[in-house]
Write a structure and sequence with these properties.
- The complex is a heterodimer of chains A (504) and B (146).
- With 504 residues, chain A is mostly helical.
- Chain A is built from 22 helices and 2 strands.
- Chain A is globular, with a radius of gyration of 23 Å.
- The longest helix of chain B has 27 residues.
- Chain B has 2 domains: 51 residues; 78 residues, no CATH class.
- In chain B, helix 1 runs antiparallel to helix 2 and helix 4 runs antiparallel to helix 5.
- Classes of the chains: A mainly alpha (504), B mainly alpha (146).
- The interface between A and B is large, with 56 and 63 residues.
């Protein structure tokens, strides 16, 4: 066994680290259970609390929050038919009917066990799949990095829900924002508009906190989330054993849903909601009694929950191998890694292997903890669902202010966080989602470095064509970019044709 | 009436213009990539502008924004930061939290004393965690020599 893996295992049995990760899982479950609050927001709020720590426990806590929040979403979905996070949409289909039948405990136990099993499978897939993929990424030179950034930007096509043009504009806005500060090659002072504080560029995590937290708070103020129906839930005894025995008889359902979830997660831009819906559909398709789905059976809850928790592991594959966050929570992890001085991507498995393996193994353990917490604690967490928005919203703003200040002890960062929060809210109202903007912001420097260095290589080699279009990995990345950019267009044209045929 | 896409496209074109002007003073190497981005942004904004004219059901600008609730909340956040610059973290946070707890309370049951006490407890607890736990001195404000 390699010394890095031994170090990782030792880190994971360190009681302090373990306790912090467990606290992360617990915090994640509570935030995830609150309708309107997402895993991304929970992580963004907590990053500033972790940056003074060692990198390994900091990442373990954030991983724990991600895992916990993904599960927490099911509690509100089951009890009040309101998914706590978008990933739990498919959980409402059978979870809430079970509650209406007086079987909420059945649904909650099913969700806890399926989430744990799915999450562990997803984390194992991440552990097994990402090192070999990262070793390919280690062979990248500037042209490959350029094309990888382009591939990342084409993900916008999938991230952009609704309008492709708006998604692409969001990406361009992000790219433009990434240009603020001293240029990496040439040393120009760009777009600082006379503010010396902007010379070092925008602090990624500060912008992320603004973009992902402030618009959500303002959304809460608008929606009055406190109007949720009163929870009608009485805990029952002796349910767990029966549900466990029933689930043991359905290993194919759990494993199939987890595998679907992990691979949906790997596809950048496709989130837990798609994973849950897809495996729910598959569960219906493979079932002997498809008509029972939607009436309140545990199979529906198991399919959705196993899948959306397995998606967590999958969604980290692009981040851990290429340094491209394929989902919003992964962008926060990227920001946290950069705060710790770690560059996400293939170097994670060479320069920071002990930290990386600690994190990957901790994700498996976090899923087990999440299953246990869910099994014993979901009925207690249910009480926070009705936490009124008048307390939550101001406290989230308060935490974003502390967080953005504490990173560099700097009020300018607070001003930038609020400014980007308000810009994010306005952009959201105009139909521009934060995902593509953040992706542009992250990929801008990678794309520019790759492009300019490749152009210099091309000048000395006497041919741009050779540098950009003849290297094998570049060609694969170009093909992937074309596929990724073209697929949403093709599928939307197909949908239109189908609709036209149906109307005819 | 202008719909939200038309307004977005016009604002984006204006922003692109400002960034283009700023990039004219840069060296060739430093200006190349930003200029590529600006050209792409302009092209996409023009497509959005055209789409906004031919779209069948354009939504009016600021549709779905409840100004009565949102504007005071935004104003509250901005004032919070302004007051923090002047008098520091503790006073501004207690003020912001207490006012917002009360303002957003739809039930009308939350009293002034309860909201101020809760705001005080939260602020002092976080101040303690950051000051003693993380060794991060939170801002004291210009008026107190910060």
């Amino acid at each position: 066994m390699s010394p890095d893996i031994i170090a990782a295992l030792l880190n994971n049995i360190n009681p302090v680290y373990f306790l912090m990760m467990a606290l992360g899982v617990g915090f994640g479950i509570i935030v995830g259970a609150l309708p309107g609050l997402t895993a991304t927001m929970a992580m963004a709020l907590l990053v500033p609390f972790t940056f003074t720590m060692e990198p390994a426990p900091a990442l373990m806590i954030l991983g724990g929050i991600y895992v916990g929040a993904m599960y927490g979403g099911c509690i509100a979905a089951i009890l009040v038919n309101t998914p706590g996070t978008p990933s739990a949409i498919a959980t409402t289909f059978d979870g809430f009917p079970l509650t209406k039948k007086g079987k909420a405990e059945h649904a909650l136990v099913t969700a806890a066990i399926s989430s744990g099993v799915g999450g562990v499978i997803g984390a194992v897939i991440l552990l097994l799949l990402s090192p070999p993929l990262a070793s390919v990424a280690l062979k990248f030179g500037p042209p490959e990095y350029f094309w990888m950034a382009i591939f990342g930007l084409t993900i916008i096509a999938t991230l952009a829900s609704g309008s492709l043009v708006k998604g692409l504009i969001g990406g361009a806005i992000g790219l433009l924002l990434s240009q603020i500060g001293i240029s990496p090659i040439g040393g120009d002072m760009r777009f600082t508009f006379g503010f010396y504080q902007l010379q070092a560029g925008l602090a990624l995590i500060v912008v992320l906190i603004g973009f992902f937290c402030i618009p959500e708070v303002l959304g809460m103020v608008e929606k009055k989330i406190s109007h949720i129906d009163k929870i009608n839930f009485k805990p029952q005894k002796g349910v767990a054993k029966g549900v466990i025995l029933e689930l043991i008889k359905k290993p194919v359902l759990l494993i199939r849903s987890a595998i679907i979830g992990a691979f949906v997660g790997i596809v950048p831009g496709a989130g837990g909601n798609i994973a849950g819906l897809l495996s729910y559909n598959e569960a219906v398709r493979w079932s002997k009694n498809p008509k029972e789905f939607g009436t309140g059976i545990i199979d529906g809850v198991a399919a959705s929950e196993s899948s959306n928790n397995s998606e967590v592991g999958g969604s980290l594959v692009p981040l851990m191998t290429l340094g491209i966050p394929g989902a919003a929570p992964a962008a926060i992890l990227l920001g946290a890694m950069m705060l710790q001085g770690i560059r996400p991507g293939p170097e994670l498995y060479t320069n920071y292997a002990d930290i990386t393996y600690t994190f990957l193994i901790s994700l498996i353990i976090a899923n087990v903890i999440m299953g246990v917490f869910g099994f014993y604690g979901s009925r207690h967490v249910a009480k926070v669902i009705n936490l009124p928005a008048n307390y939550l919203a101001p406290m989230i703003v308060f935490m974003t202010v502390i967080g953005s200040y504490a990173i560099r002890n700097n009020m300018t960062d607070v001003l930038i966080m609020v400014l980007f929060g308000l810009i994010g809210y306005a952009l959201n109202k105009a139909g521009f989602h934060p995902g593509p903007i953040v992706l542009g912001l992250i990929l801008g420097p990678i794309a520019e470095d790759g492009l300019v260095q490749s152009m210099l290589m091309g000048q000395s080699a006497g041919s741009m064509w050779v540098v950009f279009f003849t290297r094998p990995i570049s060609l694969i990345l170009i093909a992937l970019s074309l596929l990724s950019a073209g697929w949403p267009i093709v599928s939307s044209l197909r949908n239109r044709k189908k609709e036209a045929d149906a109307n005819a | 009436m202008l719909n939200k896409d038309t307004i977005s496209a016009i604002v984006l074109l204006a922003v692109s213009g400002i960034f283009w002007r700023q990039s004219s003073n840069l060296t060739e190497l430093g200006a190349f990539f930003p200029k590529v981005i600006i050209v792409v942004l302009v092209a996409l904004s023009i497509i959005l502008l055209i789409q906004s004219f031919i779209k069948e059901d354009p939504q009016p600008a600021f549709a779905g924004v409840e100004a009565r609730k949102i504007l005071p909340a935004i104003l509250g956040i901005i004032s919070y930061i302004g007051i923090m610059l002047a008098v520091g973290f503790v006073i501004s946070s207690i003020l912001f939290l207490a006012v917002m707890f009360k303002f957003l309370d739809n039930s009308g049951k939350l009293g002034y004393i309860k909201s101020v006490s809760f705001a005080f407890a939260v602020t002092v607890a976080f101040y303690g965690v950051f000051y003693y736990g993380f060794k991060v001195p939170l801002p004291v404000g210009i008026l107190f020599g910060g």
